[in-house]
Design goal:
Blueprint (H helix, E strand, L loop, with lengths): L3 E15 L1 H5 L3 H21 L1 E6 L6 E7 L2 H12 L7 E15 H13 L7 H17 L1 H4 L8 E9 L12 H16 L6 E6 L8 E7 L3 H10 L3 H6 E3 L3 E6 L4 H4 L6
Antiparallel strand pairs: 1-3, 1-4, 2-3, 2-9, 4-6, 5-7, 5-8, 5-9, 6-7
């Protein structure tokens, strides 16, 4: 049984390394011209759903996170950034494409029971139409979660993940009721951090190398460790989860770029 999902805004994470040697070789006037151009572009893109983070560690220096209503708009954001003069001094380090996703395990069970009680046959045109109407109602009610604004918290943690589908453990062969139970227990851990950590899950099956992307925002980065560590003990993570690289960033406004590229935190 395949659970229903709702999709919303598309996301693009772009990680770059600054070409420090080339940047530091520029005279002050040229650097200021490039910074002014990037500040202007980013200020406009901020209103469209782009945010900037200063990264920690060797995986990159800057991370741009774009939320857009379509892949075409996402591509336009990527191209606009590439046309800035400062882009000549940025070396791509990593990227990730996904779409905001709400998994509807409990709603899938409810809808299927309701349609079966109405005497509809699963897979029929009548079933699909009725299920589609239920999903449209859910989509309208959950619009703020499907098309979210970028949380204003200071720190961002991003990582991709999969569910195991190997010989011994395969998430996709577990009955829907069992998956729903485990996901409910998994979600209960997350609810303990409501108001402390903001989480957005995005689906990337068919879009990028992993199955989901996870973005976490908090004003206290230790909460990332606490949340993820606690979740490792629940069944769905302990048995079925596989994790990719973790990327950590500090929120940076366009006006702070000059300080950042001078080797300082504003």
């Amino acid at each position: 049984m395949v659970p229903y999902t709702l999709e919303g805004a598309y996301l693009l994470h772009q990680m770059f390394r600054i070409r420090w040697s080339a940047w530091k070789s520029l005279d002050e006037s040229r650097r200021e011209t490039l910074l002014a151009g990037m500040r202007e572009v980013l200020s406009g893109m901020r209103e469209e759903g782009t945010s900037l983070y200063s990264m920690l560690g060797h995986k990159g220096d800057l991370m741009f996170l774009h939320f857009r209503p379509s892949l075409d708009a996402l591509n336009a954001a990527e191209l606009k950034l590439a046309q800035t003069g400062l882009a000549d001094y940025l070396e791509p380090a990593h990227s990730y494409v996904s779409v905001v996703e709400l998994g509807l395990y409990e709603s899938t069970q409810r809808i299927n029971r309701m349609l079966a009680e109405r005497g509809l046959q699963q897979g029929s045109a009548e079933w699909d139409q009725a299920a589609g109407e239920e999903l449209e109602r859910s989509r309208a009610a959950m619009a703020p979660r499907l098309f979210p604004e970028t949380p204003p918290a200071r720190y961002l943690c991003f990582y991709p993940m999969d569910r195991r589908r190997g010989e011994a453990k395969n998430w996709y062969q577990v009955p829907l009721d069992e998956r729903a139970r485990m996901m409910h227990e998994h979600g209960m851990v997350g609810r303990k951090y409501a108001g402390i950590v903001k989480q957005i899950i995005s689906g990337s099956i068919g879009l990028d190398d992993w199955e989901w992307g996870v973005d976490l925002w908090a004003d206290d980065p230790v909460q990332f460790k606490k949340l993820i560590y606690e979740m490792r003990f629940d069944e769905v993570s302990a048995i079925y989860a596989l994790f990719g690289q973790f990327f950590l960033g500090i929120r940076t406004q366009p006006e702070q770029l000059e300080s950042l590229l001078s080797g300082q935190r504003a």
